[in-house]
Write a structure and sequence with these properties.
The protein has a domain of 163 residues. It is 56% helix and 0% strand. The chain is built from eleven helices and no strands. Its main location: Golgi. It comes from Xyrichtys novacula. InterPro entries: Yip1_dom (IPR006977), Yip5/YIPF1/YIPF2 (IPR039765).
Length: 305
Amino acid sequence: MASNKDPFQFQEFEEAGNLLEANRDAVTISIEDEGIKPEKQPKRAAGYSPGGEDEDPLVSDDKEELLSGQKKSVPFWTFEYYQQYFDIETHHVKERIIGSVRPWPMKNFIHVYLRRNPDLYGPFWICTTLVFAIAISGNISNFLVHLGKPNYKYTPEFRKVTIAATAIFSYAWLVPLALWGVLLWRNNKVMNLVSYSFMEIVCVYGYSLAIYIPAVVLWILPYEWLRWCSIVIALCLSGSVLVMTFWPAVRDDHPKVIIAILSAVVLLNALLAVGCKAYFFSKPEPILQVENTPAAVMIKPTSST
């Protein structure tokens, strides 16, 4: 009679188990099925992050540039070059404006507020605001002076905007350019001088004009003593910021060169303030009214002979 046991049924070999228990130092060989291979992990796609969100490739490129310490340089005539100078937080602009109107002794504006990160956002809007403040205040002042005169007819002078823009932006760009060239020339002569970049100098000059905005608004009032007092205060604050900022760049130079550079900085600043006051807020000339009076005709009597 055939056995009921299945020859292919798995059987436990008790003898082999007993032998292993008796000799625990014996070497055993485990034979695995060669047909079974471990499951391969799925390949990670490019840009895959463990969090499940794909990382922006532009952000990863910026991180790689920052980690490697290399920043892509672009030519100065491109839009990307100037775009970096408008990328600034609002509270940084606020701190720099407050620092420009509250100068402290031995406090360098570049080292304390710029920290090698100049911007053009603040200087651009300060200059633009100052241009419109001068033009509008000049028109209002002229209107108040002639108010009540029967022969006066108000006409807005839009040309003052163009003249003010030319004066302010020329001062904010050409003077820093000249100063940067002089400092660069002196730095080649005297090797241990502190050097500033052109954008840092432009940034300092732009923020130094912030104090003139409230001063110009006060010029609307037709009081000469008030105008001159505001000019003196604005000159002292703005000039102090410029002198204390550029003093480290010239203090190791020849005394005559120091006096010449700092005097030029202060005089050009004063020339801008006094020139704007004299042109836009000058005392108007009195209007001469010509009265039509009949001319007296004198008739001399003729003597008869």
